[in-house]
Amino acid sequence: MNYDFDTVINRRGTDSVKWDVKENELPMWVADMDFRLAPEIGNAIKKRFEHGVFGYSVIPDEWYEAYINWWKTRHGFKMKKEGLVFCTGVVPAISSIVRKLTTPNENVVIQTPVYNVFFNSIVNNGCRVLESPLIYENGVYSMDLDDLEKKLSDPQTTLMILCNPQNPAGKIWGKEDLGKVGELAKRHGVTIVSDEIHCDITEPGKDYVPFASVSDICCEISVTCIAPTKAFNMAGMKSAAVYAEDPFIRHKVWRALNTDEIAEPNSFACTAAVSAFNEGAPWLDAMRKYVSENRKRVYEFVEKEIPEISVVKSDATYLLWLDISKTGLESTEAASKIREKTGLFLTAGSVYGDAGKHFLRMNIACPKTTLEDGLQRLKRGVSEF
Question: CB 3.0 to 4.6 Å from 194: which of 40, 78, 162, 330, for a disulfide?
Fold first, then answer.
């Protein structure tokens, strides 16, 4: 089937967080796509809707099977049914896990720059953010394993939130790095929470490595947060899962999710997830190819037309990390100036930690005409500096 990613869908006036902006503004910030849902998923939702009764729902066996089959065939990792627990979203799951697996004033390690909500989940639950900045050299990010061990060895550190693949830079962590993270965490008694929501949005021909698949140690000391919502553009369906093989950790997480009342599905959450994993692969692969073309276009345009900035090369997500350090401006001021002068709404990198203060994040999951508009606005905005 041919899928249409070129048609511009008017999302204004639809209560969209992303598009709740002024008429002249172009939002390319928050991580949702401007593509219509895969028709296969839409048909499954329609069929469920036509039933007409929307009472309380249980988690059907098909839901477990869909997750297990997808991760086995797509990512080479065989999950166990008893390890899977439904939840309404990765973000609420992470917050619940922080509450349950830590006590106030303990440290939670994150590798910055990283998804800004991690900071909120830690601070809002009375814990301390302990940053282990990634190494950034020649436009490439890598883990500082010496610094990471120092932070994990702190007696006050009990938890680490890992971003795999990495958001905002789109880095796919390799098996060797992930294995070392697992060994360090095991050595110092730290549990790993691995946010893998972007795992299915990779460059064609590239795959990510599930943290729990790396070794027995990684599987034993971790909780993995996963969902079809980011890859299939259906965040509003509130459908996700956590995976923990260790019975003790899993019980603690299960209690956390149920205590916070985020372990029950709405009438469409399981239907949408099952359809995505069982029928959505062709759409996903077409979308990945389209986003890959957009990514290459941004690389070429910025190199030729906006030499004052550069783009960090990425292999995952539909988000690009723009290095603006040569302009001399910090991200908050740069994002504000670009939005004021051109209407282009990008995310200031400073929200991802101090390591992001000279970067901007750009969402390229949009039709090509929208992308071209965004690139021209970016060029005008940077020229104002």
Answer: 162
- Which amino acid is present at 241? A
Q: To the nearest 10°, the Cα dihedral for 269, 362, 300, 197? A: -30
pLDDT at 255 over 90: yes
Positions of E strands within the chain: 26-27, 84-87, 107-110, 128-131, 135-137, 140-142, 157-163, 191-195, 222-226, 240-243, 310-311, 319-323, 344-345, 347-348, 359-363
pTM for the model stands at 0.97
The dihedral through the CA atoms of 270, 273, 277, 278 has a sign that is positive
Q: Which two tokens stand for residue 85?
A: 């627990």
Are 338 and 191 in a shared domain?
no
Residues forming beta bridges with residue 222, ordered by sequence position: 192
| Position 384 confidence tier, pLDDT thresholds 50, 70, 90 | confident
Same domain, 153 and 256: yes
Q: Is residue 47 classed exposed, middle or buried when 0-12, 13-18 and 19+ CB atoms within 10 A define those classes?
A: exposed
Q: What's 239's domain CATH number? A: 3.40.640.10
The answer to whether position 21 is within a domain reads: no
Pick from 279, 300, 326: which residue ends a domain? 279
Contact 245, 220 (CB under 8 A): yes
Helices 90-101 and 247-259 meet at what angle, rounded to 10?
Answer: 110
How do strand 359-363 and strand 319-323 relate by DSSP bridges?
Answer: antiparallel
> Rounded to an integer, what is the distance from CA 214 to the centroid of its chain?
20
* Host domain of residue 324: 26-39+281-383
Contact 184, 150 (CB under 8 A): no
Residue ending a domain, choose from 227, 260, 279: 279
Token output for 13: 């006036």
Q: What is the pLDDT of residues 263-272, one digit of tens each?
A: 999 999 999 9
Q: Cα separation of 323 and 297, whole Å?
A: 17
